[in-house]
Amino acid sequence: MAPALRYAGVSVGYHGTPVLTHVDLDLAAGQRLALVGPNGAGKSTLIKSVLGLAPVLGGDATVFGLPPARARELTGYVPQTDALDADFPVTAAQVVMMGRYRRIGWWRPTRSADRRAVREALDRVGLADLAGRQFGTLSGGQRQRVLLARAIAAEPRLLLLDEPFNGVDAVSQEAILAVLRSMSVAVLLSTHDLAVAAEFADVVCLLNGRQWTVGPPGEALTAGNLRAAYGGHVIDVGHLLVEP
């Protein structure tokens, strides 16, 4: 079986200019991978490349053995911020139903299976009772959980999350992590929270313009690796303070 993700010597960027280089990743089905690095490190660009939205400028990149753009139907995506207007009159359930559009088509009526998938996804993130609530009236943490439900409703084999905990309260963060732990699909998330990466991920990839290291959390998140990747920044991971 082809791995969920395989990047070999990959460079990613825009208009022919690399943003991220020297990426070598293998993510097996069911594994959880965390992308870690400072702002501007290329984490979001890497996730967009997996979706086929950022060009691969060099190397070999496959998602379940396919070019990323051809594998998009196999992925679910939770963005860092969402384009939905908070004042747009759409309910939480309608947002989650958007995750079914690739299966049912934009102009076809929803089926009972689609409505059931929406209910189950909202129940899974603990928001079934808010299905009829306007999306824009929800808290930041609740909106992020709705977006996770939207990705779940797509029934992905690979789930991508771009900084899912930004602006999220502790209750919602733990609810999101609990859902992710319960899923059998491959998960790739970017995070600034090194403690989350260390506890949650099977594999950690340390980025800043290029891949600095990749491996199990205990091997990747060493003081030396963090100091090299973060440069002049001082960062705190648990009881480990890494200074330049």
List keywords for this structure.
single chain; 244 residues; alpha/beta; Rossmann fold; 3-stranded antiparallel beta sheet; 26% strand
Textual characterization of the structure:
Helices cover 32% and strands 26% of the residues. The longest helix has 14 residues, at 140-153. The protein has 244 residues and is α/β, with parallel strands linked by helices. It contains nine helices and eleven strands. The strands form three sheets. It has a six-stranded mixed β-sheet with strand order 5-6-7-3-8-9, with helices on both faces. Strands 2-1-4 form a three-stranded antiparallel β-sheet, with helices on one face. The protein has a single domain, classed as Rossmann fold (3-Layer(aba) Sandwich), CATH 3.40.50.300. A hairpin with a 2-residue loop joins β10 (235-237) and β11 (240-242). Residues 237-244 have low confidence and may be disordered. The termini are far apart. α4 (112-124) crosses α5 (140-153) and α5 packs parallel to α6.
Unreliable segments of 5+ consecutive residues: 237-244
- CATH architecture assignment name: 3-Layer(aba) Sandwich
CATH superfamily: P-loop containing nucleotide triphosphate hydrolases
Classify the fold: give the CATH topology: Rossmann fold
The total of helices stands at 9
CATH class term: Alpha Beta
Q: Quote the distance from N terminus to C terminus.
A: 43 Å
Strand order of the largest sheet: 5-6-7-3-8-9
Task: Report the principal-axis shape.
Answer: globular
What percentage of the residues does DSSP assign to strands (E)? Answer: 25-35%
Rg (C-alpha, Å): 18 Å
The helix content, as a percent range, equals 25-40%
For the sheet with most strands, the description reads: 6 strands, mixed
Order of helices and strands: EEEHEEHHHHEHEHEEHHEE
How many domains would you count in the coordinates?
1
